[in-house]
UniProtKB/TrEMBL annotation:
Catalytic activity of the protein: Hydrolysis of DNA containing ring-opened 7-methylguanine residues, releasing 2,6-diamino-4-hydroxy-5-(N-methyl)formamidopyrimidine
Assigned keywords, A-Z: DNA damage, DNA repair, DNA-binding, Glycosidase, Hydrolase, Lyase, Multifunctional enzyme
Formamidopyrimidine-DNA glycosylase catalytic domain: residues covered: 2-101
Gene3D superfamilies referenced in this protein's UniProt entry, alphabetically: 1.10.8.50, MutM-like, N-terminal
Protein's UniProt name: DNA-formamidopyrimidine glycosylase family protein
InterPro entries named in the record: FPG_cat, FPG_N, H2TH_FPG, Ribosomal_uS13-like_H2TH
SMART domains xref list: Fapy_DNA_glyco, H2TH
Family indicated by similarity: Belongs to the FPG family.
Record-linked Pfam families: Fapy_DNA_glyco (PF01149), H2TH (PF06831)
Length: 243
């Protein structure tokens, strides 16, 4: 599943179509795609893992889910979920969720919750964390209404860097460590963005999918943790368990 930084890259790659008219539209999406015909794209936005194509009075929301992909000025052999043709190129989306959001896009999203948005509000994140003391930190970091854009890779890497065990209870973690987790979620997301652009992301992983802890030279544990049952990679020696 693409995480927030990957969707930011998508937004940057399609700027050539901003302000352009959709000349042709097709695809096997269940939405009324004919509405896009001859409409001008007013801009592109992202909110966490959501990619947003903004028109005058509605927005197309695209979620890549687990296996979604896109192509710019080229096509895959499979039928796209949504295909947009412009005078200066074409854009295609595959195996993704597509919905129409009516009216003002700002009514649907709180931009303060997106760790990569200029309006990101760390104080709001801290307040939200204070309200879920009994939740495991591995689940809390994946809550999109707190850390929009943070996915499983970022979760694992942030917890490792902050030396926090993924099964720690939010309410038991020291306040300064909660703040470190909040700050590192943003820092690592922007590092992820740059590494992804340079095609070197995996080279920088310290915990995710790894076998050995680089700090302790001990085995990394792989376990499906939390209510979400997502893969966690962690060291039981240097990542403290708060219970």
């Amino acid at each position: 599943m693409p995480e927030g930084p990957s969707i930011v890259i998508l937004k940057e790659e399609v700027q050539q179509f901003s302000g352009h008219k959709v000349l042709e539209v097709s695809g096997n999406s269940s939405i009324e795609i004919s509405r896009l015909q001859n409409k001008i794209i007013r801009g592109f936005k992202t909110w966490g893992k959501h990619f947003l194509i903004c028109f005058d009075d509605f927005t197309i929301k695209i979620h890549m889910l687990m296996f979604g992909t896109y192509r710019i000025n080229e096509r895959k052999e499979t039928t796209p979920r949504l295909s947009l043709i412009f005078a200066n190129g074409e854009l295609h989306f595959y195996t993704c969720s597509i919905k129409i959001l009516e009216g003002d896009i700002n009514l649907y999203y709180n931009w303060e919750e997106d760790v990569m948005n200029e309006n990101w509000n760390p104080k709001k994140a801290k307040q939200s964390m204070d309200k879920i003391p009994d939740k495991l930190i591995c689940d809390a970091l994946l809550e999109q209404n707190i850390f929009s854009g943070v996915g499983n890779i970022i979760k694992n890497e942030v917890l490792y860097r902050c030396k926090i065990h993924p099964e720690s209870l939010v309410g038991k973690i020291r306040k300064k460590d909660i703040q470190s987790l909040i700050d590192e979620s943003v820092t690592y997301s922007f590092q992820f963005l740059e590494w992804k652009k340079n095609d070197e992301l995996k080279q920088h992983w310290l915990a995710h999918t790894k076998n050995m802890c680089v700090r302790c030279d001990l085995s990394i544990i792989k376990k499906y943790t939390g209510v979400k049952k997502r893969r966690s990679f962690f060291c039981t020696n240097c990542q403290k368990l708060y219970q």
